[in-house]
């Protein structure tokens, strides 16, 4: 445990001055601001007429009230979570390869398992922080826009789906950690994230979403009606199994692969 | 000999390429073992196997009597290393980079950072970001990372890369001091053969993954070829006079070359003979083969 704590503190030190951290915070702040702006445009016909195509797009956003706004935020989380969290994972695990410092941390009296655990914990802490930023900025924006029809029930449903989807997305990050190591870079894992998003959309269309791990957080956060949106027990088992397989593969790679 | 680093038939095969083949070496406490070879000879693969970064296909590696494997943890408390080009976290300063390794090396004394920076003469760059360091200073930072915990074993892969002549000399003196005065065992790989021959106590030559020769530095001096070279006002006449005295001499690049060991030890015999025959002698010198030439001759013969 002592080794794990040392490794985690070292990871915090490494990323304390990272520009990447602030870049991710910016992206997760920017998105709700944009959605809020679109809602504002859509709810003010005189502005939307002046803005032409932007105004038309804004009108397509649906209801301009709290429920519609929170649904939009949750739908955005599905995509942003997969890409944003995937990027954070590939960065935390991949920057050692980009900086070519990986070999320097392999033969130190901390142990590789603690290293992997510490990096994964940092990814979780970082992603949860981003989710909280997204949540707080979204709520603040909603209040600034003075959206109508506040509902405690709708907000509770939003909170459940938002943090539920965040938690499920975190479970999908371990395969990215493995792929980052296996390919010794961040390009392939980012490609993998985009690929899984495409497949997730496809499986959602054909009704197989609840059985494809990368589609599951999106199904929970979007809160759609109909059987194709309902998560079943095997959905949770699948997503948890994905985490375990990815975590085990990452540990195995760090410990047993040839690091040349 | 108190064995600190040892390998037993250590081998590594990548698909069909044998990068290292049946390597058995033993390095004692306080020795500086120069591990020499051309690029691609298997030096880095061997060092990575000694550090548990590459799994041997066959054989075993030991450090301080403990077998090296990827799950080793406590073993690394006493080992410092530098593998190939040293890189650091570019956005962090020299001091912050060393702070990371102070923690990873479990060094409780925070002053260890200042001490090692002074030792490697990088104190004035302590607040400079690693990405702004020159290659030489990046190399010093890499060495500082490997020395911050005062290891008793040092594994260094081409540590002179990027250093200027003064830097190379400083590092050489530092390593000699560590080995002689602190009993630290140094395993150093290099392709700068002449440089390593100046301070290594023993030298192993690796070629095509095989250890082809292992020699003490004293022995090396004896093994390196010596030749007597001379130049005179009339080299043809000088050769014929030497022949008359049953001395085998030959032309080489406008010089006269003599390989006779006795005459190499006593060049005055040759000089008197030439001068007494009224041939002006413009140059006479004993030329000793350096390690570079010895190394190239050795691998050519294997």
Structure in words:
Chain A has helices spanning 2-16, 19-42, 45-50, 53-59, 66-98, 112-144, 152-170, 174-183, 187-205, 216-222, 233-256. Chain A has 260 residues and is mostly helical. In chain A, α1 (2-16) crosses α6, α2 (19-42) packs antiparallel against α5 and α5 runs antiparallel to α9. The radius of gyration of chain A is 20 Å and the shape is globular. The model of chain A has no long low-confidence stretch (mean pLDDT 88). Chain B has 302 residues and is an alpha/beta fold. Chain B contains 11 helices and 14 strands. Chain B has helices at residues 43-50, 94-104, 112-119, 135-147, 165-182, 193-197, 217-223, 235-244, 261-265, 267-276, 291-301; strands at 3-14, 17-28, 32-36, 58-63, 66-67, 79-82, 153-157, 185-190, 202-207, 210-216, 226-232, 249-252, 255-258, 281-288. In chain B, the strands form 3 sheets. A 6-stranded mixed sheet of chain B has the order 6-7-8-3-9-10, sandwiched between helices. In chain B, strands 2-1-4-5 form a 4-stranded antiparallel sheet, with helices on one face. In chain B, α2 (94-104) crosses α3 (112-119). Chain B is elongated, with a radius of gyration of 24 Å. The relative contact order of chain B is 0.14. The model of chain B has no long low-confidence stretch (mean pLDDT 88). The A-B interface holds A 3, 6-7, 9-10, 13-14, 17-19, 99-101, 103-112, 255-256, 258-260 and B 44-45, 48, 51-55, 70-77, 79, 81, 83-85, 87-92, 96, 99-101, 103-106, 145.
